[in-house]
Specification:
Blueprint: H1 12-34, H2 36-42, H3 47-62, H4 65-74, H5 80-96, H6 101-128, H7 134-163, H8 172-190, H9 194-206, H10 212-248, H11 252-280, H12 282-299, H13 305-319, H14 322-333, H15 338-366, H16 369-376
Helix pairs in contact: 1-6, 1-7, 1-8, 3-6, 3-15, 4-6, 4-15, 5-6, 5-8, 6-7, 6-15, 7-11, 7-14, 10-11, 10-14, 10-15, 10-16, 11-12, 11-13, 12-13, 12-14, 15-16
């Protein structure tokens, strides 16, 4: 493998490796919301307490990320990925043996800290290995995370539900494998020629002709779009299973399989968004992804069981490409701060997801689980604000 940084060539071996690591990391993370029905029963938790668990997990996953990214911009840390995996492993062991609500909170916060260290550096690796295919590279990286988020509930249904909360310890194997993968990536990262990175950043910055005011306005729009997407996804990932069980009376296992269908659809749709974004521009992908999901989301709370699952799959396919496009758009606005921007938007997405989960948990206690879906499915309509993003042409026309 060529260990020098080639700014024009895409390193697919590194991209697939970091995507696999992302899959393993996020599969373990997704186990936490997947076992909410077990935790609710075993510890007699309320929906508010379920929301608090997600809030703590998402906030610890988010708070450190901008700082990790900023530090990486100044002093790249190739083996921070390995450290993040090991911290998540410790949190998983704590969760397996937790015996109280407070112990659960402490456990998920440790897992969240590991994730907070992993994501900014992993996204930075994806960008450095991208060459000219930044959208595709971010999608390959992101599809690993989406795939892990989809596999987690499925494995939880097959492994944890039959054997109880302690069975989450089996997911430690995924983190051990992930630690070996990111250590191999870290050696590649360590050997990158710094001058190549500096030249890439400088060349990218020269192509951007926007005023500071336009850049700040665009960043605000991207934050608003992230809010709409993550609040909606918080409702889906934390409460979709409860909604299905409440409205249609299905089992916990069947509800987990339905959540898997939604998350798997998200994983499938994300690659197309990155590829199309490289060809036609990120703005159109963001606009179509979030606003385009709105018609299907709006009908979801009011139709029958089969139609609900079909609509959820369609929403997952459409909305899934938004985050990768948003992140790459933001790094193109501030190309000299890859780590900081990656940390900010990953942190923002996790933080908003936690706040959204806590908010919808509280709202479910005050109203009903069905009502929160009637409210949350309005959020994709905010995709209309993508019209205020500046038009930025793709950096280059790539030949397949």
């Amino acid at each position: 493998m060529n260990t020098t940084a080639n700014v024009g060539k895409t390193s697919f071996s590194i991209l697939f490796a970091i995507s696999i690591a992302h899959l393993l990391n996020d599969a373990v993370q997704s186990v936490i919301p997947s076992i909410y029905p077990i935790l609710k029963t075993d510890f007699d938790l309320t929906f508010t307490q379920i929301g608090i668990i997600t809030f703590v997990f998402q906030m610890t996953s988010s708070v450190l990320q901008p700082f990790v990214g900023r530090y990486a911009d100044r002093r790249p840390s190739p083996f921070a990925l390995t450290v993040g995996m090991c911290i998540s492993l410790i949190g998983l062991f704590l969760l397996a043996f937790s015996d109280s609500f407070g112990f659960i909170i402490a456990s998920v916060s440790v897992v969240g800290m590991g994730s907070s260290i992993f994501h900014p550096e992993a996204s930075r690796v994806a960008q450095l290995a991208a060459g000219q295919r930044k959208g595709l590279a971010q999608s390959i990286f992101q599809v690993g995370g989406n795939g892990g988020s989809a596999i987690g509930p499925l494995l939880a249904a097959l492994i944890v539900l039959p054997h109880g909360k302690g069975a989450v310890i089996w997911f430690a194997f995924a983190l051990v494998v992930g630690a070996f993968v990111v250590t191999w990536i870290g050696r590649w990262y360590q050997r990158i020629i710094v001058n190549g990175i500096v030249r890439e950043v400088r060349n990218t910055a020269q192509k951007l002709n926007l005023s500071p005011r336009q850049i700040n306005r665009a960043m605000f729009v991207l934050v608003l779009l992230t809010f709409s997407k993550q609040f909606f996804l918080a409702s889906m990932t934390s409460y979709f299973t409860f909604f299905l069980m409440d409205k249609f009376g299905i089992s916990v296992r069947d509800s987990q399989l339905c959540l898997f269908a939604f998350l798997a659809a998200s994983a499938v749709g994300i690659i197309a968004g990155g590829y199309v974004g490289d060809k036609i521009g990120r703005k159109y992908v963001i606009w179509c992804s979030i606003l385009g999901a709105a018609p299907f989301a709006l009908f979801m709370p009011y139709v029958g069981y089969t139609a609900t699952i079909i609509l959820a799959i369609l929403v997952g396919l459409i909305i899934s490409s938004a985050f990768s496009a948003i992140l790459v758009f933001a790094t193109e606005l501030k190309p000299a701060h890859l780590g900081t921007i990656a940390g900010l938007f990953f942190g923002l997405s996790f933080g908003l997801g936690g706040i959204g989960a806590a908010f919808f948990g509280w709202l479910a206690e005050q109203t009903s689980i069905r009502f929160i879906f009637q409210v949350s499915t309005l959020l994709p309509l905010l995709g209309i604000v993508a019209a205020f993003l500046p038009n930025m042409k793709p950096a280059s026309r790539l030949k397949d």
